[in-house]
Every structure is written in C-alpha cells, then in structure tokens.
Amino acid sequence: MELKLCESDYNFMTVIWDNEPVASGELVKLCAEKFEWKKSTTYTMLKKMTEKGFAQNIDSTVTSLVPREDVERHATKHFVEHTFKGSLPGFLAAFFDGKSISEKEAEELKKLIDEYKRK
Known about the structure:
The protein is mainly alpha-helical and 119 residues long. It has six helices and three strands.
C-alpha cells in the first residue's frame, strides 16, 4: 500500500485522526468548519480515502485504517531521500541552519543516534 498522501488528503485524514471514532455526520460538520466544504465534498473525500485503504465507514462511524505516524514517517523518509539524496546529515545541517538547540534536545538527539547506530 502506498502511504503517500497529497496535502488535501492528509488534511482530511488529520480530521479523522484527531476525532476518531467520528460519526460521518459529525465529520461533515468538522470539515465544513475547517475547510468550508459542502457535505458532498466530505463524502467524496471519505469515499476516496476508503478506496485507498486509509479510512473506513462502518455503520456511519468513520475510523482510520492507517496510523498517522506511518504516513508521517513515510513522508519524512521520502522528503529526505528526494531532497537530500538520502543524506541524514545533509537534512540535519539544512534543518539546523542558523538555529540553536537546547542541551536537552542535543542529549535526546545523541540518545536517538546511539539507539540506531549500527553495531
């Protein structure tokens, strides 16, 4: 299954993730408030996400089938591979450009690196 979502699909799934389980009628209201969508637009998006395997609508209750973390992990990996040719140091150098981090953040990053370091 392809975990890549365009921005509008991701934004729609965010409403589901933030509110699940959510009644389909409530989902319509939430999308009207957040995106100014009509009922038909919400149901079209729901059908699309259901067909792609990201969400389900059972007895008018909508839930996700794919965790947000999986989609975000895939998007991040794709971004680093595409933009920085897979170079994590290149990504971090661009991310930190002109920024400083706290001692606590530096320790967390060191710990994370140690956890993933090849033995």
